[in-house]
């Protein structure tokens, strides 16, 4: 049966279980948009390609299946690289389709032409261009396989405009086959012996290729072994923070007590993560290339094992496959570190209790306490980058899988598109986005996407009138010389209302609860602007204190 290239692409997406795509339309892939028209696939129309790519990243992050994004060539594609970079650094499966100039126009610098196989190599696991309409099923099957196998990540496929209208009798698309990598029985046995011989072990969870079953199974394993467990930067949803084994977030601004325990550990079990700059405190918690601690590194891609840290035991397996193999591994006696684990959990609880006071009329500590008491365990929290995120990452106690979407790459503007994507995926769950005033304005236009589709996200927009993280570093390095970090902002309450959503403004701590409840009751996408004094730059130190000690 003859089908156009556009029809073959949509047919292959459906065969691989795709139910939604994020896009900004472009004339370069009109034939694909037409094929989507009556396909049954939801097309989420966004306002900027970076936001669309971030939505696709969030879908990949929360499902483990590639999120799909479609953009036009040139400016559209380059806008989308913000989301590609996030997916690459965060090991998230994603496929970006880019409309391309017709084949007979290539290499002439035609309208909006870019050679993506040269330009996008650093952003993706594979960049391919489809030259033959009959090979579309092959290319898309490969794209799904590459995006999900080993270390997951983004794939880019470019679509010359003429192949999308050309017809071919191509094979009927089939779904890709996931690739598993199971640990060997001898490796699991060796891990058990190393754990039994250890005195100060710790497990650190990170990366992707987890699912809810694996998260629950590892919590049972930690409970059996009384093993202290930390979660890598912005992967806190991988372990229940109220479980007695939880030791804390291994990320930016780590609890000094936890950092000390990792440095003094005699065995580190690193599962799923690369332990890159942020979780490793600039590669100081574990020495590179030869750790002082015994290192058992479990990772789905063998090319990562030994690349930064030489492990004592390297296991090539996804977290799901690895955890499934742990079932028969039981401690012989009561572990000698049981009291240490309990002390580490107590230290975490103390560390994650927010302060009640601070500079200004709005105190974020009591607001966080209210959020903890008045949101469900399955609430999804999203954020981008900025000092405001400390309030969420340090003081919210995550208790379930798929309750967090945040970029380990530290990309600003991520939180709002991610919240929109999360609400599309889980409409029955509450979704709360934390954003700073600088972060929000990077992709604030996607608030209209939430309005358009009736997805009632709640945005807590923490407005301190500055690029806070940069201002903090500036006061430390160049005290008193404020340059390039002050911001002038719109009326964010009016912004929300102008877009057709619900707006609130909080200028005193005691006003927050009522404002949140009104936003929740409105049934609309909402922005709650929280006017925070810029002095409250961290939970424990003010700008003036940082400047004074510089």
Task: List its traits.
17% strand, Rossmann fold, six-stranded parallel beta sheet, 550 residues, 20 strands, alpha/beta, 3 domains
Instruction: Report mean pLDDT, rounded to a whole number.
Output: 96
Count every beta strand, where a strand is a DSSP E run of 2 or more residues: 20
Instruction: Characterize the quaternary organization of these chains.
Output: single chain
What is the number of domains?
3
Shape: globular
Could you describe the 3D structure shown?
- With 550 residues, this protein is of the alpha/beta class.
- It has three domains: 3-168, Thiamin diphosphate (ThDP)-binding fold, Pyr/PP domains (Rossmann fold, 3-Layer(aba) Sandwich); 185-350, TPP-binding domain (Rossmann fold, 3-Layer(aba) Sandwich), CATH 3.40.50.1220; 353-549, 3-Layer(aba) Sandwich (Rossmann fold), CATH 3.40.50.
- Helices cover 36% and strands 17% of the residues.
- The chain is built from 20 helices and 20 strands.
- It has helices at residues 5-15, 30-36, 49-63, 75-90, 116-119, 136-148, 185-197, 212-225, 256-264, 319-324, 338-351, 364-374, 389-395, 415-425, 437-443, 447-453, 468-477, 492-498, 512-522, 543-549; strands at 3-4, 20-23, 42-45, 67-71, 94-100, 126-129, 154-160, 167-168, 201-205, 229-232, 246-250, 267-271, 294-299, 313-316, 380-383, 404-405, 431-436, 458-463, 502-506, 526-531.
- The strands form four sheets. Strands 3-2-4-5-7-6 form a six-stranded parallel β-sheet, sandwiched between helices. Strands 11-10-9-12-13-14 form a six-stranded parallel β-sheet, with helices on both faces. It has a six-stranded parallel β-sheet with strand order 16-15-17-18-20-19, sandwiched between helices.
- β15, α13 (389-395) and β16 (404-405) form a beta-alpha-beta unit.
- α3 packs parallel to α4 (75-90).
- The longest helix is centred in the first third of the chain and has 16 residues, at 75-90.
């Amino acid at each position: 049966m003859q089908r156009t290239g556009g029809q073959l692409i949509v047919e292959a997406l459906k065969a691989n279980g795709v139910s939604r795509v994020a896009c900004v339309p472009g004339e370069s892939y009109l034939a694909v948009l037409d094929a989507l028209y009556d396909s049954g696939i939801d097309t989420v129309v966004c306002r900027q390609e970076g936001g669309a790519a971030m939505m696709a990243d969030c879908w990949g992050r929360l499902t483990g299946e590639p999120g799909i994004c479609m953009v036009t060539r040139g400016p559209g594609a380059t806008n989308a690289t913000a989301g590609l970079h996030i997916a690459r650094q965060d090991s998230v499966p994603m496929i970006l389709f880019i409309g391309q100039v017709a084949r007979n126009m290539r290499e002439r610098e035609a309208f909006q032409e870019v050679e993506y196989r040269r330009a996008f190599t650093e952003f993706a696991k594979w960049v391919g261009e489809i030259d033959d309409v009959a090979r579309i099923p092959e290319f898309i099957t490969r794209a799904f396989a590459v995006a999900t196998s080993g270390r997951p990540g983004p794939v880019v496929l470019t679509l010359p405009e003429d192949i999308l209208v050309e017809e071919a009798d191509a094979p009927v698309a089939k779904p890709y086959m996931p690739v598993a990598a199971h640990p060997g029985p001898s490796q699991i046995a060796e891990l058990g012996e190393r754990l039994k011989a250890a005195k100060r072990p710790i497990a650190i969870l990170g990366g992707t290729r987890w699912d809810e079953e694996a998260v629950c199974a590892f919590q049972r394993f930690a409970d059996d072994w009384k093993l202290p467990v930390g979660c890598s930067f912005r992967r806190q949803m991988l372990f229940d923070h109220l479980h007695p084994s939880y030791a804390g977030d291994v990320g930016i601004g780590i609890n000094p007590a936890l950092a000390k325990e990792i440095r003094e550990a005699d065995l580190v079990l690193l599962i799923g993560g690369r332990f890159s700059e942020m979780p490793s405190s600039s590669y100081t918690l574990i020495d590179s290339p030869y750790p002082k601690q015994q290192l058992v590194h479990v990772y789905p891609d063998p090319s990562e094992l030994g690349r930064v840290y030489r492990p004592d035991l390297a296991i090539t397996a996804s977290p799901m496959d690895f955890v499934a193999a742990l079932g028969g591994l039981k401690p012989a006696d009561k572990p000698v570190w049981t009291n240490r684990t309990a002390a580490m959990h107590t230290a975490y609880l103390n560390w994650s209790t927010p302060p009640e006071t601070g500079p200004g009329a709005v105190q974020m500590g009591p607001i966080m306490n209210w959020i903890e008491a008045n949101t469900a365990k399955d609430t999804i929290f999203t954020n981008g980058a900025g000092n405001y995120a400390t309030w969420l990452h340090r003081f919210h106690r995550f208790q379930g899988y798929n309750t967090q979407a945040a970029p380990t790459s530290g990309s600003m503007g991520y939180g709002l598109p991610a919240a929109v994507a999360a609400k599309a995926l889980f409409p029955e769950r509450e979704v709360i986005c934390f954003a700073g005033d600088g972060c929000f304005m990077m992709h604030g236009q996607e608030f209209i996407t939430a309005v358009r589709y009736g997805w009632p996200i709640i945005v807590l927009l923490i407005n301190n009138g500055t690029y806070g993280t940069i201002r903090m570093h500036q006061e430390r390095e160049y005290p008193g010389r404020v340059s390039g970090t002050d911001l002038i902002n719109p009326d964010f309450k009016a912004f929300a209302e102008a877009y057709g959503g619900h707006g609130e403004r909080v200028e005193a701590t005691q006003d927050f609860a009522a404002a949140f409840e009104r936003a929740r009751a409105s049934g609309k996408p909402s922005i709650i602007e929280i006017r925070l004094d810029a002095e409250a730059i961290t939970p424990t130190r003010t700008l003036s204190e940082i400047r004074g000690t510089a």
